[in-house]
């Protein structure tokens, strides 16, 4: 049971109704997370706007989903892990790609470096060093992509915290959490 009511799209009004209609159009339904966030029009606008902004980002959908899966797994957010596993498959990732991403791994060294950086941001609460940034650059990631990674991590922390703190019911197929090796 959630710690806040889930806002029904049919009873919503104004800007919340408009955004829930957009979310419904994008997903074919309104996932429970958005229904919980809809209790705050400002939070819903921020979250939905961020997802929209990243759809045109430089990292691409597949890498964005790998970052989301890694962050969700690290934070033990079952909701986001399940949701982003589904979205990752839609973005062309294999089950193996997504399973590896849960613990910051990838068969591609460049991707693994960026996922490792994303998890370091989570683990160190953003307190990374100049050397950490240089290591990501050494794998060919641009400053734009590094900043976008930080922003994606921040968005995923937001969604993880919403789902965990509010007890949002998972409405995607469950995915088992993994512990880092």
From TrEMBL:
Pfam families: CMD
Domain Carboxymuconolactone decarboxylase-like: start-end pairs: 51-121
InterPro entries: AhpD-like (IPR029032), AhpD_core (IPR004675), CMD-like (IPR003779), Uncharacterised_peroxidase-rel (IPR010195)
One GO MF term attached to the UniProt entry: peroxiredoxin activity
NCBIfam families: ahpD_dom (TIGR00778), peroxid_rel (TIGR01926)
Protein name (record): Carboxymuconolactone decarboxylase
Protein's organism: Actinoplanes awajinensis subsp. mycoplanecinus
């Amino acid at each position: 049971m959630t710690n806040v009511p889930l806002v029904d799209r049919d009873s919503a009004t104004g800007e919340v109704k408009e955004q829930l209609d957009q979310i419904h159009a994008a997903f074919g339904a309104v996932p429970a997370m958005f229904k919980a966030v809809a209790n705050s029009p400002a939070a819903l606008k921020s979250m939905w706007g961020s997802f929209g902004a990243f759809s045109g980002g430089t990292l691409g959908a597949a890498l964005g989903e790998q970052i989301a899966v890694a962050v969700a797994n690290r934070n033990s957010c079952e909701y986001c892990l399940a949701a982003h596993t589904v979205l990752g498959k839609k973005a062309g990732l294999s089950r193996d790609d997504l399973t590896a991403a849960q613990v910051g791994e990838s068969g591609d060294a460049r991707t693994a470096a960026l996922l490792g950086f994303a998890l370091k941001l989570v683990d160190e609460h953003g307190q990374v060093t100049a050397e950490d940034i240089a290591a990501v650059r050494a794998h060919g990631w641009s400053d734009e992509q590094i900043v976008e990674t930080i922003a994606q991590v921040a968005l995923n922390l937001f969604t993880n915290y919403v789902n965990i703190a509010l007890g949002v019911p998972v409405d995607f197929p469950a995915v088992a959490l993994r512990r880092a090796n």
